[in-house]
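Data availability (excerpt). The following record was deposited with the supplementary files.
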Amino acid sequence: MTNANPTDNGTTPHTPHPETPETGPRTTPDQPLDIAGIGIGPFNLSLAALAHGVPGLRTAFYDQTPTFRWHPGILIDGTSLQVPFLADLVTLADPTSPWTFLNYLKTRERLYPFYFAERFHIQRAEYDAYCRWVSQSLPGLHFGHQIDALRWNPERNLFEIDYTQLDTEGEAEALGRAYARNLVLGVGTTPHIPEPLRPLAEAPAVPVIHSADYLDHREKILAADHVTVIGSGQSGAEVFLDLLRNRPTGREKLHWLARTPAFAPMEYSKLGLEHFTPDYTRYFHALPEGVRNQLLPQQWQLHKGIATETLADIHDELYRRSLHGGWPDTVLTPGVFVRTAGRVGTTRVELHLEHAQQGTRSRITTDAVVLATGYRERRTDTLLAALDPYIRRDHSDRPRVDEHHRLVLDPLVTGAIHVQNAERHTHGIGTPDLGLAAWRSAVILNAITGKTVCALPERTAFTTFGLEPRLHPRAAAPADERRPLPRQLPVR
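Predicted structure:
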């Protein structure tokens, strides 16, 4: 997304975009939107679904892509979500919603097959199909709309959203402007490519790809003589397993490398999963900034580990290939990182490796590299350039986000900007988790409307995170002056 006027702080007049009925919802300063959603991924789709049918609420959601797509490059056959099907767009906030996964099955006459399948974790492709069903059925979603600028107009006390409507080829077709009292940013994440490999990933002749594009290049990767997978998370494991299953026994020629000290299972104990509850989110948000910064990297196994079933499948496949003697032609090495990388000839890649614990170095030459190196929050510097002067930041120059997932803004801005999946530094490792999508959307919806549109539970975990503040006996106030102390973690 690009900003039409990156130096504008929203205090000067603007030349309005011409509006046509085809460019989206007709809004005027006198009839603004209550919610303008920027981006239509699962999180803003969740908000749109929960907001649907709220009396008097005007909403519109914009995305520059032509249709909803959820990680299409990694929808490998047979891969499953790592959260139960109840973590759909709405159920954990409103199980009576018409947009539940179970209602999707009902509309497809698949309730009984699902019932007999006894699946608690559905396939990724099925989750993608469910979300597309919602996106195609829910009104107020505007695909093919590129956001060009977001501004605050202090005279109107409204946000102005300039957008370009795109045709089916992605070319500009029309311009428009919308007005909104509140914004919700859900622009998603972008694949992370480590710096040493970035030049090779950008070179078209060299097969160095991110796992987000794996299926688009799968046949070419499978045809490569030697393949290296980098990354120790679920995506890396699934890519490695898919390659292993489709290469000849004894001639696999696969390397799997990871920075983590082990190919470790994801923490999936029932009490461990309570780190993905609203209770823990509130606890984490109330911690000092420095403590939050220290905690996040220590919790990698809560969200960067591998499903035990996938690890078992990999071991089973490797073991099967050793039944008649010999070892599979595979190398699985954790605890290493790529120092530098370069091209050998026209297409081959040389990786210079270092082992963190041993302090040793080595190099390998490979014909293709799949980077399962995760995602990073999509940069919004350009998109939010005109709003940046209003955004309050922490000691690390990151936006401050309150308990309602709302950016802390200059008091001059009477509207609110909420964020979805851009607040890990303030709300913890559950931020990108689908299991918290409906709850967060409900929190945002309740905050914007100022009423309880979705009733939320006061307690969601058996674990008590932290201690409630109590006066030390010596510092206790006189009996007639004592008042109930507020809870450390606010309860909704």
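Summary of structural features: Confidence is low (pLDDT under 50) at residues 1-24, 472-492.
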